[in-house]
Design a protein that fits this description.
The complex is a heterodimer of chains A (about 325) and B (about 500). Chain A is mainly α and about 325 residues long. Helices cover about 70% and strands about 0% of the residues of chain A. Helices cover about 65% and strands about 5% of the residues of chain B. Chain B is globular, with a radius of gyration of 27 Å. Classes of the chains: A mainly alpha (about 325), B mainly alpha (about 500).
Chain lengths: ~325, ~500
């Protein structure tokens, strides 16, 4: 078990190196720091001195890989690649292009992001699995058909429509919840109500349909027929056998996103004014702050890889047959 | 005109790719026609009501998109230097010509659907010189009315009724025409053909769904056409453009993103997926490493990074493009490219798994033993047996891409802000949410059109999956031979 875990973690290293090299190539080699400076300072009226100043302030004025003018270890460490990319491995994100500490921002903003992403995830999972089990219980009836049609319609609606429609109905017309904003501590609850409900509803169509397919696949198996032959009630079959066995495909899709919940949702945080990592990313994109986008890309892939390892571990938890050789 | 053309054809990058795609689809259709089992699959799609109905709706969208992909620059009235014809910098499409009134009848700013007066009060000078705050009349919407307050509702009702009548007549005519063709083809009286089509006999394409969908579309569209001669049916936008026109133009953007992205990702996914599964060993390790690395980057961030880079590239190189349409088009193309690069991994993973399975099958082993080259084995034995996976994932992916465009444009990494798309429509309208009373028509139109497109695409994708996925087709063949409409259960029939 430990050995397996170690092997998985070791396998993660080349992937992270790959991500790192890819982002470096994207951000520094497709466009040079000069291009970035010119973009930030305005393309039309910009002097070479201003570009140099901008680069020096942010540490982009050094060579990319090898600093020929430095001595010893500094030849490699005093470069853009080392300073901007290699340091990411120890989660040293450096400073954003407007001079703020990215690491601190990330630590501060993870909380609000989680406050919305976690309830959406947990409540959503419960709602979708229950809805799917309901449809499967009434399979091949009018209820099932109506449910599937509803799912297809729901999944054809843009998430932005749910947000805008929800904000209009609940907050503006009925005045049940604040339209957007955030507060610390227990005061955040009223602000979270609307985004969480909308978040769950927005995923209802596609997720319910997906779980329904998984359960229906399991329903066709031999062990279900055996269970029925033993005289088990349909409910016992559904919860005791089908749900247990459907855990593997469910976990494959679900566990991997858990660590990424930290990143929050770009769409929801921006519409509801929640100061999380999602809105941080949007602001960075709009301000074309490449340092922040780079940090988020790296953080995102680290969390994804953690999710992959967790997925493997969860298999062992639900399925005693899975052994890690 | 000095014998010169009154327009200059412009082939934008995406236009060229769109027509390449059409050509590829034509070749694919021909292949399907020749291969018995592919033809059977499409037969099943046509036999399903949802498949046929959604195909009609999609065909309408595609027709609009294709008309909007034939671009040209009209000649200016006054000749340029040296008597040569000068061409406008506006790049128009054939669709623009067809709906010219919609494009040209612009108001100053917002106006509600079917309104005759502007949305906001303005200070107007009366004929007697006095000034007053009032809703000014629109330039085009309801301009034929002498008194908008008294006559508008009656006028709209009259025109809607006329439009509905025309739509119903058109629908009846269309049904009669199709039925006549079917009757002739089946050599029966047309009354018998009507009964057959209604009952879905004999098994075959679901003409009832076809005729119903076409009729509904005609009945809906005719009043809009009639009304839009004198009103802005869906209102106008902030700069006074007809929202109906904006919605029609957005269709092309959505279709281009939904289809060209697939065109971009197919070569990567197919070649790498098959290579990984077929050759195994270090090739497999390398390809798996590449796609795991790409997959581990959250796709929104990868797309954002890509688009930001393109943005910097374009901003720092002004003068790269002759017209703003070409500029926007380049960005659209790049967006498709980036979306394609961010999305090929899923299909690649599926194809790798399938190739791993297929390469161990006896007929492939036999081909090996006969000394058939790798390339021929892949082309003749592996690829045709994976076609259904590619097909299903291409149609399933389409609707997701259409929805993604709106979100990406909202985040600021979508299409060029000057390009008309559902995303930019929603983005512009969102800023007016706080206005009282609300400007709802832009949002409603964008979401409505998107829902129609995505819903049709989802239903069509389901029909295609049911027809081509071996897991469902085996069940189908097991129970009954050929596509047969399920008989209504006893007691449910009306």
């Amino acid at each position: 078990m430990i050995a397996y875990l170690l092997r998985r973690l070791l396998y993660a290293i080349p992937i992270l190196v790959g991500v790192n090299l890819l982002t470096f190539a994207l951000f520094f080699m497709v466009n040079t720091p000069d291009d970035m400076a010119r973009m930030q300072l305005g393309v039309k009226r910009v002097t070479p001195e201003a570009i140099e100043d901008w680069k020096r302030e942010r540490g982009y004025d050094r060579p990319l890989f090898v600093n020929a003018s430095a001595e010893g270890v500094d030849r490699v460490t005093d470069t853009v690649f080392f300073d901007k990319s290699v340091r990411l491995f120890v989660f040293d994100f450096g400073f954003s292009d407007d001079g703020r500490d990215i690491g601190r921002e990330i630590r501060e903003r993870m909380g609000p992001s989680l406050a919305i992403a976690l309830p959406v995830f947990v409540l959503g999972l419960l709602a979708y699995v229950c809805a799917a089990l309901l449809l499967v219980f009434f399979r091949q009836t009018a209820l099932d058909l109506a449910g599937v049609v509803l799912c297809v319609v729901l999944m054809s609606v843009s998430a932005m429509f749910y947000i805008i429609g929800g904000q209009y109905l609940v907050s503006k017309a009925w005045r049940l919840a604040p339209i957007s904003g955030f507060a610390e501590g227990g005061a955040m609850v009223p602000f979270l109500l609307l985004p969480v409900v909308i978040g769950v509803v927005a995923g209802l169509g596609s997720s319910t349909r997906w779980y329904r397919t998984i359960f229906l696949d399991e329903m066709g198996r031999e062990y279900v027929r055996t269970a029925r032959a033993k005289g088990l009630s349909e409910l016992r079959v559904l919860f005791g056998h089908v749900l247990r066995n459907a855990m593997i495909p469910i976990l494959t899709g679900v566990v991997v996103v858990i660590p990424s919940l930290f990143l929050g949702s770009l769409l929801f945080e921006s519409f509801f004014g929640i100061p999380g990592l999602g809105s941080y990313t949007i602001d960075a994109i709009n301000a074309q702050d490449f340092a922040v986008v780079r940090a988020m890309v790296f953080l995102g892939s680290v969390l994804y890889i953690v999710g992959l390892v967790l997925t493997d571990l969860s298999y062992a938890w639900v399925d005693p047959r899975v052994k890690f050789a | 005109m000095n014998g010169q053309a009154s327009f200059m054809p412009v082939v934008l990058w995406t236009d060229a790719l769109v027509f390449l795609l059409v050509a590829a689809l034509a070749v694919f259709a021909w292949t399907c026609w020749r291969s018995a089992h592919l033809r059977q699959g499409w037969g099943w799609v046509a036999a399903s009501g949802a498949g046929m109905g959604s195909a009609v709706v999609l065909a309408l969208f595609v027709a609009v998109g294709l008309l909007d992909s034939l671009h040209f620059r009209p000649a200016l009235d006054k000749p340029g230097e040296g008597g040569k014809v000068a061409y406008s910098v506006d790049v128009l499409s054939v669709l623009d010509l067809l709906v010219a009134p919609l494009r040209e009848q612009r108001e100053r700013t917002y106006s509600a659907p079917l309104a005759a007066v502007a949305f906001q009060k303005e200070t107007i000078e009366r004929p007697d010189g006095a000034q007053a705050r009032a809703f000014p009349r629109l330039r085009h919407g309801g301009a034929h009315l002498a008194d908008p307050e008294a006559g508008r509702v009656a006028d709209i009702a009259r025109r809607t009724a006329a439009g509905l009548l025309a739509g119903v007549l058109g629908a009846v005519l269309c049904c009669a025409l199709v039925l006549a063709v079917i009757a002739r083809h089946r050599r029966v009286a047309w009354r018998a053909a009507l009964v057959q089509v209604w009952r879905g006999e004999p098994a075959g394409p679901d003409w009832r769904a076809f005729l119903l969908t076409a009729s509904v579309l005609l009945v809906l569209a005719a009043p809009v056409v009639v009304l839009s001669a004198h009103y802005h049916v869906l209102g106008t936008s902030k700069i006074g453009q007809s929202v109906l026109y904006l919605s029609l133009k957005s269709i092309r953007t959505s279709l281009v993103i939904g289809t060209l992205t697939t065109l971009v990702l197919l070569p990567f996914a197919v070649l790498l997926g098959i290579a990984a599964g077929y050759f195994k060993g270090w090739v497999d390790d390398l390809i798996q490493y590449v796609y795991t690395t790409l997959e581990s980057i959250p796709s929104v961030l990868l797309i954002a990074a890509g688009v930001l880079l393109i943005q910097v590239y374009m901003e720092t190189r002004p003068g790269l493009f002759e017209t703003s349409a070409q500029r926007a088009d380049f960005r659209l193309l790049m967006l498709c490219l980036i979306l394609g690069l961010a999305n090929w991994t899923g299909l690649c993973r599926l194809l790798r798994g399938e190739a791993l399975k297929l390469r161990e099958l006896e007929y492939v082993q036999a081909a090996h033993a006969f000394g058939v080259s790798h390339w021929r084995i892949i082309v003749r034995h592996l690829a045709p047996n994976m076609l259904h996976i590619v097909l299903i994932s291409a149609v399933m992916g389409f609707s997701g891409l259409v929805l993604a465009e709106a979100v990406l444009s909202y985040v600021g990494v979508g299409v060029d802000p000057s390009m008309i798309s559902f995303g930019t429509m929603i983005n512009d309208a969102r800023l007016e949410m706080a206005r009282e009373p609300m400007v709802w028509w832009s949002l409603a139109s964008a979401f409505g059109f998107m829902l129609a497109l995505v819903l049709a695409a989802n239903l069509f994708a389901d029909a295609v999956r049911d027809a081509f996925d071996p897991r469902t087709t085996v069940r189908r063949i097991g129970f009954r031979v050929g596509p047969v409409r399920t008989a209504p259960a006893p007691g449910t029939a009306p």
